[in-house]
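Lecture 7 notes: from sequence to structure.
We start with the chain below.
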Amino acid sequence: MNINPIIRTILNHFRACTIRSYLVVLPDHGRIEKQLKLEELITERGVLDMRSLELSLQQKRVEANLTDLTRCIRGMEFDLKVNSDLEKKENKQPRGTSHNSPPSDKKSPKVGGFSE
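Predicted structure tokens for the same chain:
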């Protein structure tokens, strides 16, 4: 129930300055509710911004961990490939030859691929 129209009709009926000077204006509850709702929304937005920041930091950490894990896996794959290639080379060499055979008469290329 809205009491403001009733008070206005009474004041308009008497038109007395004494009554108007002692009158206390009642607050508009609709406006107050809107302001409170707006403050709640602003507070909720601040909380959501903080949560968004926390989640973005966690996402960056997970991405960094995923990158490190991928590097480790690729390193392990490379090591496995190198070791399997070495084993294949060792298996292809005849067992009768020694590893300390004399060097051949061919000139070996120098470092950098330059020859004299």
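Points to note: Residues 28-90 form one domain. The mean pLDDT is 78.
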